[in-house]
Automatic annotation (TrEMBL):
Pfam family membership, one: AHSA1
Organism expressing this protein natively: Streptomyces ovatisporus
Family statement: Belongs to the AHA1 family.
InterPro entries: ASHA1/2-like_C (IPR013538), START-like_dom_sf (IPR023393)
Activator of Hsp90 ATPase homologue 1/2-like C-terminal domain span: 15-131
Protein name per its UniProtKB record: SRPBCC domain-containing protein
Alphabetized Gene3D superfamilies for the sequence: 3.30.530.20
Length: 248
């Protein structure tokens, strides 16, 4: 198989091309639906929680239509790139196409590809949900990530147990994570190791990743005041207790 592979996604959004362009071409826009982004020394840095970040650059840009981001690959290899294409449709909607390329071969290729695909499905679902329920509102992001040697199913059982429920898609819930405010809303995302809740003011996402031995939670608060620093610390502590990595 060719070692340089491409992953493609497409979503139709209830938004104008200008709105979608802002959401995929600026750090503030990317933070609305992906993870926190900010400019750092001429690069754009994405914060995946728990001290994990990824820096990249804009490689190509056609204002209003197309932007390509690139992150360094392994030594001597070309970068991984993420291309966004914006296309307006009649009726006021916009199609966003995403193409990720620069994957490399290996025994875990299929799992890696599948993991990225599921991740983009979740984030693009966030973007569609933002335009549907929270369009125009600013966001405060809270992200926490931990690593563990435990199997994904074991971690997931712990996670749902500590949330106080393992609900189905469409179910209304009130989750009660210890030491944090309850999460009330409707389950809008569900998979084997994925749980997403849409609340009155945003989204809460929980995900376990077998391939990278990782568990994470991402929260989006739209149009409300949230102390990001203290809330992030609280969720990171919750994740650390879950994975057994809590600092003394």
């Amino acid at each position: 198989m060719d070692e340089h592979r491409r992953l493609a996604k497409e979503v139709e959004l209830a938004a104008t091309p200008e709105q979608v362009w802002q959401a995929i071409s600026t750090p503030e826009g990317m933070s609305l639906w992906f993870v926190p982004h900010e400019h750092t020394d001429g690069e754009i840095e994405a914060d995946f929680g728990g001290g994990n970040s990824q820096a990249g650059r804009v490689l190509e840009r056609e204002p209003g239509r197309r932007v390509v981001y690139g992150a360094p690959g392994p030594d001597g290899e070309p970068p991984m790139t993420i291309e966004f294409l914006v296309e307006g449709r009649e009726g006021g909607t916009t199609v966003l196409r995403l193409v990720q390329s620069g994957f490399f071969g290996g025994d875990d290729w299929e799992d890696e590809y599948d993991g990225f695909g599921k991740g983009w499905d979740m984030f693009l679902h966030n973007l569609a949900g933002y335009f549907r329920y929270f369009a125009g509102l600013p966001v405060t992001n809270v992200v926490a990530t931990g690593f563990t040697t435990l199997p994904g199913e074991t971690v997931w059982a712990r996670l749902t147990g500590r949330l106080g429920g393992d609900p189905a898609l469409g179910e209304r819930v009130r989750l009660t994570p210890e030491g944090l405010e309850p999460i009330e809303g409707v389950v809008d995302l569900r998979d084997r190791l994925l749980l997403g809740i849409r609340t009155e003011h945003g989204f809460s996402r929980f995900m376990a990743d077998d391939l990278h031995h990782m568990v994470s939670t991402t929260h989006y608060f739209y149009g409300v005041t949230v102390d990001r620093e203290s809330r992030t610390a609280a969720w990171q502590s919750w994740i650390d207790r879950l994975t057994g990595n809590e600092k003394p």
